[in-house]
Specification:
- It is built from 8 helices and 11 strands.
- It is globular and about 55 Å long.
- It is of the alpha+beta class and 314 residues long.
- It has helices spanning 35-55, 63-69, 100-116, 119-130, 135-146, 156-175, 293-298, 304-310, and strands at residues 13-16, 28-29, 31-34, 180-187, 210-213, 217-220, 234-241, 245-246, 257-260, 264-277, 282-292.
- Strand 10 and strand 11 (282-292) form a beta hairpin.
- The protein has a single domain, classed as Toxin ADP-ribosyltransferase, Chain A, domain 1 (Alpha-Beta Complex).
- Helix content is 32%, strand content 21%.
- Helix 3 (100-116) packs across helix 6 and helix 4 (119-130) packs across helix 6.
Length: 314
Amino acid sequence: MGATSTRPNRERGLIDVEGGKITERELKAARAVAQEAMSEADHTRLSNLITDMARDKDSEKTRAARDRERATPRDMSHVESPRLRRTPIPEIAYRAPMSARQRKVRSALKNRVIAAAPRSQHKAVETLLASPDPTSWQRVNDGLHKASGDVHGLADKDRAMVQRLDRAIGAYEQLNDRDHTVYVGVRLPDNVGGVFDKRDLPAGLKVGSRIAFDQFTPATHNLHELPGHDDQRVVVLEITTSRGMYMGRAGTSDDTSHLLPRGMHLRLTHAAVVPYATGGGFGERLVVQAEDVFAAAAAPPLPPAASQSSKGKK
């Protein structure tokens, strides 16, 4: 047996959901890291959060100036109507496709936001999200994670581009009036086994864990559209949130893509094997439910009737 496997007091590894090499836009690339490294990054994120909160109390600067100095973007989302707020889908409920009406509403708002956006924001969207060359996406997201989410850790050109995309997402959040349930895929590193049920989840992705998204996060409203939905080496997170911007299409098209903002903090609350529509039939797979830590703390409770009626809605 090698020396490394018998070393005393060896640190227990955790999964860093954004620590791997980015090879595709649609999935997060995970890596196993030492617990000490994760704790240090979490400390940096907390320090940045406290600093951002302190900046908001500086009345001598405009809100725009304060936002430029923030490490992470301000949460602009709000859902006033209990009818349009959602509770997490029950664990064993069928994950149905998003309705055409829901796609149409979200797509109309997206088009409205894009039409009103300045040219600089259009260029940021094109460079980071639509360009066939993913180099900028990879470089920016890798830099954001290495800086524990602080945009000021990037080169000035990349910082400006990131903050322009932040503002586009914020404009959508400000006008949006409803919650979303979206799916995010995390590809496990090669040295971690596949996940078939919740007992297989590695440390850092078990129920009760907290994770942070330093990077922009691609998601889908339809589970079957997520690359790796049928791959046990991809952990699927189901997130109910008011954050982010719908990037998909209206009508019957199989494109319900969504972009979550950087700087989100999530708590993993439940995990279960669930039935879902595959686009041409039915399937089952493990889904890990996650809630937005700060949104959950700030949101008023749903009235009982609204809470019941919101369950299972897409």
